[in-house]
Amino acid sequence: MHDWHTALTSLQQYADIQSHDPHCRVGSALISPCGLIAHRDVNQFPRGIANDERWHDVDAKLDLVIHAEQAVLHGYLHDVSGWTMLITKCPCHHCAQAMIQRGISRVICPPYRVGSKWERSHRLAQEMFREAGVNYTELTQ
Asked: Which positions, given as ranges, span the membrane (predicted)?
């Protein structure tokens, strides 16, 4: 059994170093069925797009950013059916779609913040996970 709290803390430290987002540094990791971290990544702009002042413009950032969950799925092209996704923030419904489509069977993340502008998207993600049979686990402190 994994110490998911420690793994999540370590992943957040990685995101804090690697992500260029000044406000919301998100990390995601693919965990193989044998418990190894196969790939990890952070929220980022696409390749070839400069890490410039657009990180400080919320609208520009939202138009350009690749969420950590999608970055890790794009960066690991092997079959991940039955694998676990560890995420430092609650996933949005678009990332949930990508995880379900790739066959992720378990998602582990902190709970979403009630009242957040992302709350509707987080709730929809949870509904999609439930319907698709994805084991969704929220880690609380």
From this structure: none
